Amino acid sequence: MIVLDGKATSAQIRLEIAEAVKALYSAGKKTPHLCAFLIGNNGASETYVAGKVKACEEVGFRSTLKRFPETISQQELVEEIEKINQDPEIDGLIVQMPLPKHIDELTVTLAIDAKKDVDGFHPTSVGRMALNLPTFLPATPAGVIELLKRYHIPTSGKHCVVIGRSHIVGSPMSILMARNSEPGNCTVTITHSRTTNLKELCLQADIIVAALGKPEFLTADMVKDGAVIIDVGITRVPASDTKSGFRLKGDVKYDEVAPKCSAITPVPGGVGPMTITMLMLNTLKAVELFGK
Ligand code: NAD
Fold it and tell me: What is the pLDDT of residue 290?
């Protein structure tokens, strides 16, 4: 059984990005510049954005963090996005979710110039991804693909069951696994909360991507021998024996599933570390695709 180490893989990719930044600089091109919008005072969002800013520093990108009060109107936010769209200095823009209730997520996503959509959530990016055209891929599914690639996990002709159909994980994951690409070329079954025969489907799967957000949901009796298990789930569960008072749990019951499978991602240290790194890769791509 191979443990797919997202932490080590992510560190390696960040070194490669840092090298690419140096090469851009030597070629007289600009340093990639990521801008992040943070709205309100959500603690988890603060942590995520801080991680993104830190990652920019690590790979040699410029970064700009713009904070807005919880009370910003949708119109004002769209105007701020438009300023960034027009700013030739900035290559990528992310608006940290969740947004305050009075702001519509889709309106904000649509306001971002698709050429700066490094989160890969704009319909143009999603459409281009589905057509297998060069574009920004959503970071978490792209991180899974990168892990499969770097560990040379065979995917062609395999049956992949994706659990979850969210716009940011499950749905793009199913598209990427089915694409005529390597990794890819899977026969994909996408499942969700209305699926009635999940266990039966999982038992037929060569690869399972669990992205439903229910800790330790996938148990050994749902997994066939030798399957590849990708655990996207991250849930904080209370733990009295840790300093923080919680522990991160994946969607897979790791201890009982790991001995049955051929490869598995741990939580933490699997898909999680890959996500921010793929955002960095998208920002680099923005310069390569659209930078002057
Ligand atoms: P979501 O709540 O938006 O979507 C969950 C999906 O799971 C839904 O499509 C739902 O239909 C499906 N689902 C729920 N119960 C189910 C069941 N019993 N059987 C089958 N399907 C079921 O969640 P999300 O944003 O896609 O995130 C999923 C998990 O991944 C969460 O734990 C989240 O924290 C984690 N996540 C991790 C990263 C990362 O960087 N590793 C990034 C994004 C999300």
Answer: 85
Assess contact for 278 and 142: CB atoms under 8 A: yes
Output the CA–CA distances (angstroms, integers) from residue 14 to 46, 65, 90, 109, 156, in the order listed.
Answer: 22, 21, 20, 27, 27
For residue 57, the model assigns a pLDDT of 97
Known catalytic residue at 52: yes
- 132 closest CA partner among 172, 74, 75: 172
Which ligand 1 atom is the nearest neighbour of the CA of 192? 21
- Residue 164 alpha carbon to ligand 1 centre in Å: 5
φ/ψ region of 269 (left if φ > 0, alpha if ψ in -120 to 50, else beta) reads left
Domains present along the chain, CATH in parentheses: 28-120 (3.40.50.10860), 139-272 (3.40.50.720)
State in Å: Cα 235 to ligand 1 middle: 10
Ligand 1 neighbour 109 (Cβ under 6 A): no
Q: Is 144 in the pocket of ligand 1 (CB under 6 A)?
A: no
Ligand 1 centroid, distance to 249 Cα (angstroms): 13
Is the CB of residue 191 less than 8 Å from the CB of residue 163?
A: yes
Q: Is the pTM of this model over 0.90?
A: yes
Q: Which of 5, 91, 96, 253 is catalytic?
A: 96
- d(C-alpha 147, C-alpha 264), whole Å: 11
221 carries an active-site annotation: no
Per-10-residue mean pLDDT, the chain, length 292 = 98 98 92 97 91 96 98 98 97 97 97 98 97 96 98 98 98 98 97 98 98 98 98 95 93 98 97 96 93 71
Q: Are strands 159-163 and 207-210 parallel, antiparallel or unpaired?
A: parallel
pLDDT at position 289 is 86
Is residue 241 part of the annotated active site? The answer reads: no
